[in-house]
Amino acid sequence: MLNGMDSEAEGMLQRPRVNKADTPVVLFDAWCPLCVGTVRFLLGKDRKARFLFAALDSSTAHDLLKKCEGDPEALESARAGSTVALIRHGRLHTKSDAALRIAAELPLPWRAMTVLRIVPPFLRDGAYSALANRRHRVLGKLDSCHVPDPADLGRFL
């Protein structure tokens, strides 16, 4: 470790390590009823507490997004709060890819959703975007930002 950065060989600096551990972080829209409902669902189904959570509009999420790897369009989509985002091993996953990677960590029957990976990403992401782009129009916005239950507080960054 040199200047807070990992190096594989002395003198060869690499990117700062961001969430390189096995603990994935789910970034979500804390003002969206659908997104908050999904987080509550994950908290209930994730019995092994594999996931951590952060609101997309939080400083924590912004810091993680600055340091993680991902294509520029995915990073912008996450910064804009228009997609669920998953950061794992320093890499950003968004839209249907994030949803299916999250499902892969859940117990059956939810894990079975990963079979949808056979559907081409442009179709999966098209369906995902159609829902995401209408969620506030259909469901509205919460009056206040999501506040986790005290028992789950340690899972939120």
What's the short story on this structure?
By secondary structure, this protein is an alpha+beta fold.
Describe the 3D structure.
This protein has 157 residues and is an alpha+beta fold. The chain has a single domain, classed as 3-Layer(aba) Sandwich (Glutaredoxin). 38% of the residues lie in helices and 13% in strands. The strands form two sheets. A four-stranded mixed β-sheet has the order 4-3-5-6, with helices on both faces. The chain is globular. The N terminus is likely disordered.
Main sheet record: 4 strands, mixed
Overall, the morphology is globular
Strand order of the largest sheet: 4-3-5-6
- The CATH topology is given as Glutaredoxin
Summed up, the domain count is 1
How does CATH name the architecture? 3-Layer(aba) Sandwich
What would you call the structural class? alpha+beta
Number of helices: 5
The amount of helix comes to: 25-40%
| Assembly state of the chains shown | single chain
Average pLDDT metric: 80
Q: Beta-sheet strand percentage?
A: 5-15%
Q: Please state the CA-atom Rg, rounded to the nearest Å.
A: 16 Å
- Number of DSSP strand runs: 6
Which CATH class?
Alpha Beta
Draw up the topology in text:
Elements: E1 7-9, E2 12-13, E3 25-28, H1 33-45, E4 52-55, H2 59-67, H3 72-79, E5 85-88, E6 91-94, H4 95-104, H5 121-139
Parallel strand pairs: 3-4
Antiparallel strand pairs: 1-2, 3-5, 5-6
What are the salient characteristics of this protein?
single chain, 157 residues, alpha+beta, Glutaredoxin, 4-stranded mixed beta sheet, two-stranded antiparallel ribbon, 6 strands, 13% strand, disordered N terminus
